[in-house]
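Appendix B, record 7
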Amino acid sequence: MLSALPLVGETTRLEYETKVLLLLMIFVYAFFKFVWSYRLYGFRAVMLGAVPASTDLGPDAEVQAERATRINGLAGRHQNQGLRAFYFALAALAWFIHPVLFIIATMWVVVVLHRRDFRSRSQRIMRGDT
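C-alpha cells (predicted):
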C-alpha cells in the first residue's frame, strides 16, 4: 500500500474515502462537461446545416450563422472545463501521497494552465502576434 512509501502519512478510513470522493466528483464533473460539449457541437452542426446556400442568403442567414458561432463557443468552453478537471484530478491524486504534495501539485496545475491559456505559442498564433 502507499503507507509503505517514504513521506507518506498515515491515512484514516474517512480521509481515504474523502480523497476518493473528491476524485470521483472531479471525474463526474469532467464527464458531464465533455458530454454537454459533445452535444453542443452536434447542435452547432445541425444549425450550420440549416443555413441556406450562399445563393439563397436572406436576412435570417446571418442570424443563424451567429447563433451557430455562439453555440460553438459555448461547446468549446465546456470542453475546456472538462479538460481542466483532468488537470486538477492529477493534482488531487497527489493527496494520496501527502497533503503538502497536493498543495504543490495544485499550484503547479494553476501555473501550467495559466501559461497555456495566456502565454503559450498557440495563444500568440490565435491572437495574430506571431
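Remarks on this record: Residues 12-127 form one domain. The chain is about 75% helix and 0% strand.
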